[in-house]
Each structure stands twice: as C-alpha cells, then as structure tokens.
C-alpha cells in the first residue's frame, strides 16, 4: 500500500473513532465555551458523549446560554467575545456551521436566552446602556441593530430569563439593595410593551441575596415543561450557600417555595461560567451542571439534603470548568427529524 494511501486510511479510521451518532431524543447537553457535548438521559456514572459539536466552522468561543426550541434546534448565545446567537439543528455534530445566525450589534453581553412557541428569541443582555431583554423575531438572521428591548424598572442586575407554557417572559435579577426578584411579563399579549403579570420577591421566598457584579450569573431560573413549576438555582455572591428552590406554577408575591434542595449530600458545589446552571426534564428531573464535566440529576419531587439519583460523568478529556446546561426530552423525535432540513 502506498504511503499516502496509508495516511488517508489512518485518517479515516481516526475520524470514525471520534465521530458520534446524534444523541437519543432524551438527552442532556453541556455548553462549554467552544463546544457542546451531549449525553443520554439514561446515562449514569462514567460515560462518553453521544454528540459533540466543536470546531472553527461552529464559531463557538464562549458559548454558555443555550435553549432548545420546540423543533429541537439549539439556540446558542455567546458571552463577551461575540454578539452572535447561532442556531444549530438537532443532529449538529463535529465541525458543523450553524444553520442560521443573527448578530445583536449593540451588545455582546449575552447572559441568558429563551425561545417561545412561535420561535421568537428573547436574549438577556447585561451591558449597562442596553440592559434588558432583546426580542428577536422568528427566522431573523444577520445584523440586528435595533431589536425591541423589554426592561424591568425594579431590577438593577439582570441574571436569567425563561418562557412559561403560556409564552410569558420571566425575568430574574436583583434590585438595587440586592434582593432577589422574579417578574413575569405578558409577552403572550404583546412583544413590544408587555404588561407585568406578577412578581415573586420577599423574605418568605428564601431566595438568597446578591450584590451587583458585572457578568455574574449567581441565580438561574428554569421551568418544569409539564407543570410550569419554577426552579430557582441561587447562591450568595461568595458562593458559600447554594440552593435550588421550587415554587408553584405562577407563584406571586412573598410566598415560600414548595420545596428546597440544598445541603452537602446534594453535591452541588457552586456556579461557574455564564449560562444555565440547571435544566428540568419532561419527567420532572432536576439536572445541575457541575465542574469537571459532571451532571447531577435529582428525582422528581426531590427535597432537602438529598443525594442525586444519577451522576453523569464524561469519561473523555475536556474542559474542567463548568458551563451551561440544557435538556431535550419528551419530544416527538420522528417529527423533529423531518424538520432537520428547516
């Protein structure tokens, strides 16, 4: 066999070893700056990723905040190094370019992202002159110099957003005194001037206070896709206290959580890079991103100082820092495969 042919064959074999099939429909993904890694939701213990998206064509550099839309496309916002939100199909793998991108030319401080049922993007920026939630219409691409911006007059430091089952926008942050606030705006009624529907704040909530600090994501919100229960990952600025508080759907006012997950047995160690700290599967499992490519999974209804029901640990080399987390579950996989060419 000729030397050049040997090299070619060896290269092909090496690529086959690195390549992965797309993850199963029920999967959880870690977003780690320059890459996205996926794992089966059935995994427990040491496991190899079932899907890896990484390479120069992806344009991923500091990806953190990520959401999966109803057609299972990834919407990935990058923090500081880029003002771009990239959209990738469900089976995106290896060095694959995004299927669509849009650029928010006025800011690159993209800390959190959400998508409604109409596939409109909501992107949280913390740049002082632009702080708030930018609304990007479905199918937008290219530079977007003047998107609609939703601001919350009670929030001094924005940290996280989510969309509920009714297509209303939840904004989490801290007021000027450092008190935690989670406000819900009626974006199901208006995208340009939504009314304030309810506000969750006060001492009974047990939400830990924070102090203004640029680029800090020490509170993350996520919604149970079935029940709309609100999960709040929150930590003090020095990260000495960490808890996940669960509130009833549409909780409002100064009300306590229905349960709280916290304590040494949980194994939750603290917040990391900007991005979603938690995600909720369609069966109610809480998934928490941890450093060293670890994911802690807690059973539906878990409360108190309880150990995870699963620990997913990537057995392959990769970044040791913590990134964002996003889950895909309970979807109609066959229908979404037909949408992959969108």
UniProtKB/TrEMBL annotation:
Region (Disordered): 309-342
Keywords from the named record: Signal
Signal peptide: 1-21
Top-rank taxon, per record: Bacteria
Protein name: Uncharacterized protein
């Amino acid at each position: 066999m000729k030397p050049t042919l040997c090299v070619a064959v060896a290269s092909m074999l090496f690529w086959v070893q690195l390549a992965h099939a797309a993850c199963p429909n029920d999967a959880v993904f870690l977003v780690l700056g320059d890459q996205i890694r996926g794992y089966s939701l059935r995994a427990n213990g040491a496991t190899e990723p079932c899907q890896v998206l990484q390479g120069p064509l992806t344009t991923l550099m500091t990806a953190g905040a990520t959401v999966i839309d109803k057609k299972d496309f990834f919407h990935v916002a990058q923090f500081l190094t880029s003002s771009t939100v990239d959209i990738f199909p469900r089976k995106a793998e290896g060095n694959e370019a995004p299927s669509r991108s849009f650029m928010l030319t006025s800011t690159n401080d993209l800390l959190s992202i959400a998508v409604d049922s109409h596939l409109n993007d909501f992107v949280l920026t913390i740049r002082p002159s632009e702080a708030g939630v930018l609304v990007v219409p479905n199918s937008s691409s290219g530079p977007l110099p003047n998107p609609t911006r939703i601001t919350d007059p009670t929030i001094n430091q924005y940290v996280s957003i989510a969309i509920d089952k009714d297509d209303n926008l939840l904004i989490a942050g801290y007021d000027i005194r450092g008190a935690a606030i989670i406000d819900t705006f009626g974006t199901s009624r208006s995208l340009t001037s939504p009314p304030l529907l309810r506000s969750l704040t006060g001492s009974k909530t047990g939400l830990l206070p924070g102090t203004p600090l640029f680029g800090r994501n020490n509170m993350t919100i996520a919604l149970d896709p079935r029940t709309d229960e609100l999960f709040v990952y929150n930590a003090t600025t020095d990260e000495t206290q960490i808890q996940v508080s669960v509130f009833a759907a549409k909780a409002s006012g100064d009300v306590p959580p229905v349960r709280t997950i916290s304590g040494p047995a949980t194994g939750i160690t603290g917040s990391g890079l900007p991005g979603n700290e938690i995600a909720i599967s369609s069966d109610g499992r809480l998934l928490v991103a941890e450093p060293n490519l670890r994911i802690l999974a807690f059973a539906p209804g878990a409360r108190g100082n309880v150990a995870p029901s699963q620990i997913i640990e990537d057995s392959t080399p990769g970044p040791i820092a913590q990134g964002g987390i996003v889950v895909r579950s309970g979807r109609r996989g066959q229908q979404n495969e037909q949408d992959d060419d969108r």
